[in-house]
Amino acid sequence: MTARTLLTCILMFQSVLSFAINAEQAHDLIQEQTPTLLGDGSQLVSVYYFGHSMGLSVVGLERVGEDYLPIRWLVIFREQTVLGWYYPSNEFPLRFEDGHLMFPKGSQVEDVYLYPKPPKSITIENTIIPFHTP
């Protein structure tokens, strides 16, 4: 009985440490914590999930602007809290793995290490993209 209780505690602890969100949960969390990123509701909004690593999750948020061009943010979460976002992001990563944002080959973007906290800016195609906090 003690071994079973210990195993249950370990599994519960592990699930708390490895909380990952999906795109729908990310949208809901953005709506709760930073609704201005979603606009006034009149624009098409898409959320892309890039991965979870080391307690952080990364999603891409894209709205279609008035000129029909995409407006993109890279939103960083720690568990269920929006840490901040990179804006404007004209390039989305392929994935987020082992603490690294990995970008497509040929995009001229170096992989970005986000752990333990995201850098104050990243450079994408010779453009410095600042990290904004809520």
Gist of the model:
This protein has helices at residues 2-17, 23-33, and strands at 45-53, 56-64, 70-78, 81-86, 95-97, 100-102, 112-113, 121-124, 127-132. By secondary structure, it is an alpha+beta fold. The radius of gyration is 17 Å and the shape is globular.
Write up this protein.
The protein has one domain. Helices cover 20% and strands 38% of the residues. It is built from two helices and nine strands; from the N terminus they run H-H-E-E-E-E-E-E-E-E-E. About 10% of the residues have low confidence.
Helix content: 10-25%
How many domains? The number is: 1
State the strand order across the main sheet. Answer: 1-2-3-4-9-8
**C-alpha Rg, in Å?**
17 Å
Mean pLDDT: 83
**Annotation, overall tally of beta strands:** 9
Tell me the β content. Answer: 35-45%
Q: What's the assembly state of these chains?
A: single chain
Give the overall shape, derived from the CA principal axes. Answer: globular
Uncertain runs are: 5-18
End-to-end Cα distance, whole Å, is: 46 Å
Counting helices, strands and paired strands, the structural category is alpha+beta
Q: Report the sheet with the most strands, covering strand number, pairing sense and barrel closure.
A: 6 strands, antiparallel
Number of helices: 2
**Order of SSEs:** HHEEEEEEEEE
Write the layout of secondary structure elements.
Blueprint (H helix, E strand, L loop, with lengths): L1 H16 L5 H11 L11 E9 L2 E9 L5 E9 L2 E6 L8 E3 L2 E3 L9 E2 L7 E4 L2 E6 L2
Antiparallel strand pairs: 1-2, 2-3, 3-4, 4-9, 5-6, 6-7, 8-9
